[in-house]
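Case study 2.
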Amino acid sequence: MEQDDRSKAGPRRPLSEMVTDGALRADVMAAACPSREVLNHVTSRWGVLVLMALETRTLRFSQLKRQIGGVSERMLAQTLKLLEGDGFVRRQAFEVVPPHVEYSLTPLGLEVAERVRGLADWIQVNLGRILEHWDPENLAAYAPETMA
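Prediction:
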């Protein structure tokens, strides 16, 4: 079986260097690039968790809040608004009393959720290896059942 020899193809370029959108070239390393703002929305603690929660189903606000332990109503509302503004989350309001609003991912949101899920899954699988490097005093602040 022949191995893929990438060294002959030259250095591998990061995907971010290959992405272009018309005249605008995304450069997440540039301070003034809007990609930095999107990166912040997607990789924030609450952004990742919202994307993961909505990855497989549509949820109402209260269902999302229950599923994402520790998030305040204010932070959840702010995160949903930011992700909706980026085109990742779809908000659907129904004209009923009491008001009924559902949140789901757009096709673009599904793409980004798949990527952040990969990172979150890696962290969960490797948490034991990571926690070996933590200061025991910091580790003591967490419930033992969360680290089983």
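The CA atoms of residues 33 and 121 lie 28 Å apart.
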